[in-house]
Write a structure and sequence with these properties.
Blueprint: E1 14-18, H1 28-39, E2 46-55, E3 60-61, H2 92-101, E4 109-110, H3 118-127, E5 135-140, H4 145-155, E6 163-169, H5 189-204, H6 207-211, H7 213-216, H8 232-239, E7 248-251, E8 254-255, E9 258-259, E10 262-265
Parallel strand pairs: 1-6, 2-5, 2-6, 3-4
Antiparallel strand pairs: 1-10, 7-10, 8-9
Helix pairs in contact: 4-8
Pfam families: LigB (PF02900)
GO molecular function: ferrous iron binding; oxidoreductase activity, acting on single donors with incorporation of molecular oxygen, incorporation of two atoms of oxygen; zinc ion binding
Organism: Gordonia effusa NBRC 100432
Length: 266
């Protein structure tokens, strides 16, 4: 069973992480930023991840079998990235809690063949390299921001039980519009403009504008020609308990021209 944390112990926050591609682990800066972030967190009893790389309706709970291999959902990378492992314990109790928190009559599925994709395990290999904390991944059942806010709100009680909730995406993700693929490339204008807008909206707690980002944000649609990499943000906002709070913007900057802004919501 998941045990409630002590009333004197601070609950883990909700995070939005710009996780990037597997080669981000080769960025000394990004690795140092993620490690500093995890060092500042209350050690969680379990970790729940919703990743841009798993869209499936109805809400689907991933495997709790720790022997199920990772999902290497990327192509064209050096072989060493496909040899990465992350044998975290299966989060059986957490899976049951997630299912119990969903509304009566709303279907919940289980996929015993899928455990963690790279949106989940890449940042975790840096943050918790010992892989000794139970981890569960659930699907994005929709890309609608309001429905994802509602989903996050239903999951929010898990934080009081010591669960770290992570929405894993990318603040900008216009891969097909990048003209310079180097990690230290000068960011394109659309990426910088969207990131600056996002920074301002986060600082203002402007959830209304964030929900309507497809119409209000500069740099669109280039920053997000498809929106699955911004969608996990809304699960994080909902899970925070106060979507209009002003999050700590703990990581910023760019990698390969894409904005890796990441947030902590307490």
């Amino acid at each position: 069973m998941l045990h409630l944390v002590s009333m004197t112990t601070k609950s883990p926050p909700a995070l939005f992480l710009s996780h990037g591609a597997p080669p981000l682990v080769d960025s000394e800066l990004w690795v140092s930023q993620l490690r500093a972030l995890s060092d500042d967190l209350t050690r969680p009893t379990a970790i729940l991840v919703v990743s841009a790389h798993w869209e499936e309706a109805p809400l689907t709970i991933g495997s709790t079998d720790p022997t199920v291999e990772l999902t290497y959902d990327f192509w064209g990378f050096p072989e060493r990235y496909y040899r990465t492992t992350y044998w975290s314990p299966g989060a059986t109790d957490l899976a049951a809690r997630v299912e119990a928190l969903m509304p009566d009559g709303e279907p919940v599925a289980r996929d015993q063949t899928r455990r963690l994709d790279h949106g989940a395990y890449v940042p975790l290999t840096v943050m918790y390299p010992d892989a000794d904390i139970p981890v569960l991944q659930i699907s994005l059942p929709t890309l609608d921001p309001q429905r994802l806010l509602d989903l996050g709100a239903r999951l929010a009680p898990l934080r009081a039980e010591g669960v770290l909730i992570i929405g894993s995406g990318f603040t900008t993700h216009g891969l097909q519009f990048l003209t310079d693929p180097r990690p230290d490339a000068t960011p394109p204008t659309w990426s910088m403009e969207f990131d600056a807008w996002a920074q301002e909206r986060f600082a203002a707690g402007d959830v209304e504008a964030l929900i309507d980002f497809r119409h209000r944000a500069p740099g669109m649609p280039y920053a997000h020609p498809t929106i699955e990499h911004f969608a996990p943000l809304f699960v994080t906002l909902g899970a925070s308990g106060d979507p209009e709070q002003k999050p700590d913007q703990v990581i910023d900057g760019f990698w390969m021209g894409l904005a890796k802004r990441s947030l902590v919501l307490n």
